[in-house]
Amino acid sequence: MVEWTRAEKRTFLRQRMEARLAALLMENKEYVEALALLSTLVKEFRRLDDKLLLVDIDLLESKLHFSLRNLPKAKAAPTAARTAANAIYYPPAQQGTIDFQSGILNAEEKYCKTGYKYFFKGFESFNALGNSRAVSTFKYMLFCKIMVSQADDVVGIISSKAGLQSLKLFENAIYDYKAEIEDDPVIHRHLSSLYDTLLEQNRCRLIEPFSRVEIAHIAELIELPIDHVEKLSQMILDKKFTGTLDQGAGCLIIFEDLKADAIYSATLDTIATWRRLLRAFMSGQPKSWRE
């Protein structure tokens, strides 16, 4: 069909057919071929100043660059799309798509709070239209809240904060809702980071009552293998808490956090100040005085 439009010189139809072909190539994960086709189209649409279709092309280009892990170019495309959309009337559904893509890019760079704002705007657009994409956008909104440890902000949708802190439930949720969670390319990229965050929070919460505890006991409480818990040594190096690992006894020894004494530090500052003043005073006196 695309070849026919080229042969018949149906420029208007060819451009739209090629845009659709690029979208299909992206769905088939043929990203390089899709981007090559799209780069030519972008130049043509900019010359024609067809802003309505140019916005769609920019969004598609952003998705392709994102799939190829080229974040700088992926972020530039929604900016261009938003600029073009501001110059014309752009349907609310497409406006929501711009916000949705911007939310994905911000979340990818760990700016989950900013990502949440974009997802919220996208959700409002989709929800007002009864668009099915409102569900996936809402899912990303909740995910952003979890990523910034604000799960309690979605009370009534998520049962409890304690439930979110359970790594066992986390693993079960991934297994039970594989299609919605692990098979989602955006959320899948963040699962490892979220899992490590939850694991770290659980370790800190569990060791808090102890001064000395067996590693095997912590693993039993978290209901995870011992090798998951042995990463405590890295947490000690990262100064998440103060302690040491007794590998021979298989124990973790936790020290109390020593709070700095304000009077002690103030006294040191005073002594240092007097030392500087004394040196300044002595430097201006005769040599016999300094001796």
Overview of this structure, please?
GO terms for molecular function: structural molecule activity. This is (rape) hypothetical protein. One of its GO terms (cellular component) is proteasome regulatory particle, lid subcomplex. Residues 189-271 form the PCI domain. Pfam families: PCI (PF01399). The protein has 291 residues and is mainly alpha-helical. The longest helix is centred in the last third of the chain and has 23 residues, at 185-207. The protein has a three-stranded antiparallel β-sheet. The protein starts with a helix and ends with a helix. Among the domains are: 165-176 and 189-258, Arc Repressor Mutant, subunit A, CATH 1.10.10.10; 261-291. α2 (11-27) runs antiparallel to α3 (31-48). A hairpin with a 4-residue loop joins β2 (243-246) and β3. Mean pLDDT is 75; it is low at 156-166. Helices cover 70% and strands 4% of the residues.
List key phrases describing it.
16 helices; three-stranded antiparallel beta sheet; 3 strands
Count, helices: 16
**CATH fold annotation of the domain at 165-176 and 189-258:** Arc Repressor Mutant, subunit A
Name of the top-level CATH class of the domain at 165-176 and 189-258: Mainly Alpha
Which second-level CATH architecture of the domain at 165-176 and 189-258 applies?
Answer: Orthogonal Bundle
Question: Could you tell me the number of beta strands?
Answer: 3
CATH superfamily of the domain at 165-176 and 189-258: Winged helix-like DNA-binding domain superfamily/Winged helix DNA-binding domain
Which radius of gyration do the C-alpha atoms yield?
29 Å
The helix fraction, in percent, is over 70%
Average pLDDT metric: 75
Question: For the report, how would you describe the main beta sheet?
Answer: 3 strands, antiparallel
Spans of at least 5 consecutive residues whose pLDDT stays below 50 are 156-166
Helix/strand/pairing category: mainly alpha
Measured between the Cα atoms of the first and last residue, the distance is 100 Å
**What global shape is seen?**
elongated
Strand order of the largest sheet: 1-3-2
How much beta, percentage-wise?
under 5%
Q: Return the string of H and E elements.
A: HHHHHHHHHHHEHHHEEHH
